[in-house]
Design a protein that fits this description.
alpha+beta, two-stranded antiparallel ribbon
Amino acid sequence: MAERKIPMRKCLGCGEMFPQRELVRVVKTKIKPEAEDGEVTYEVSLDLVGKKNGRGAYVCRKSECFEKARKAKRFARALQCEISEDIYEKMAGEMRDSE
């Protein structure tokens, strides 16, 4: 029987490739449909399970990698949206809780 291919993803913090299941996914999901002016509202959050819909980016479970990606604004670039500091603080707290 042939072996299954393991999906690999790159960490935004350290830039190393890891199996997808070893990383934490940060996801941008649409929470409000387009308004008349064409504006769409998004929510950025951690997806610890890896099942949420939306555009995702991956980071190691290490807090150093999270902070490195945050400082270089790699999440904003990967998710193609601006991320406020309170959202970063909330995600950092969730990362500490999951360790």
